[in-house]
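hiii, so i know i said id send this last week but things got crazy w the move. better late than never?? heres the sequnce for the chain we talked about at the cafe, plus the structure i predicted for it. fair warning i was half asleep when i ran it
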Amino acid sequence: MTGLRIALLTRRFDPSGGGTERDLMVTAACLREAGHEITIYADEVRGSSPGLTVRRIGGPRLGRALGLIRFGLGAAAAARRDGANLVVSFARAADADVLRSGGGAHASYVRAARRWRGAAGAAAMRISPYHRAQIFIERRAFASRRLKKVIAVSNFVRDDLVREFRLAPGIAVTLYNGVDLDRFRPARDLRIRDEVRDRLGIPRSAMLVIFVGNGFARKGLGYLIDAWPALGAKPHLLVVGSDRAEHAYRRRAGALGVGDRVIFAGPQPDVERLYQAADAFAMPSLFEPFGNTVMEAMASGLPVLSSAHSGVAEVLPPEMNPFIVEKPDDSGEIALRLAALLDAREGLGAIARAGAEKFTWERYARELRAIIEPLGRRA
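okay and structure toks below
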């Protein structure tokens, strides 16, 4: 087919970022390789990428809420004025042809936030101009007559969007993210394990569980720490990521008598090496649209403890199902399932890797093109 002129919309363009930024870069690359002309429209631009055209939408800096509304109402129109055949939005933006949702309905997120922010924190979110603006733009986006397809990162997200916006049957589809199987893989050189542990002050002989993620409360770190005293094997916990309340989690571990076995490493650029130094992965999230780090850990050959409130639970190998936490705010359940996981870990590494190998970025590219290219032909 003749190449399309495809606009990709994003609030922030950052070629070195993670999460949505990484997904956007992968999408742009695979569509360019298929012969399509790609232009990225962003409200905030942090860097550049060879061969990619990036255009900033908007004028002078506004507050967060006003900036979101300006971008959300104007980005798709700007792309069409530039001649785009198809507008695919990775952000909350009205009048896109395709909406890609990596987080579900924002209204659902705000309602769920009571679980980790408490009643007062959730109430503050509900009246916040920024969160109200996100909900406003999102409702405009999903009600648009131009909308042809919704791409969700999991069935967990897709089902939420269908309920929240009463989407017509078939308009919403699930496309799971991929994982870099070359970067994240079981250690070929076992010296990496010792080098990482020595650098972080973790005994070489200790059993080590790794947690990777920002936003500790939503990802269940507090309840994971609460479970630590009940683990008879006395494993160490390596926490990788950042949170403004990290000091509170340090105090929590200390008060439970496990402060010497809970190591806070902060953000780490070589997280793939840290996976290779661990024996298992745990992230009992209270709300997780997918859970990319779970898939990274599996690709690294680690058995994983996940949550029933996480989209990645849909694609775990059956052998991992006993380690899906049904109530992630129950530290007793976390302790029982994690103890069982550590006992069974020797036979699960290869199973974890094989499960991750089904989710390549090449598979993502094929499925993405199958979804959006027919829409461009009808445009």
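btw The chain has two domains: 5-178+360-378, 191-356. thought thatd interest u
miss u guys!!
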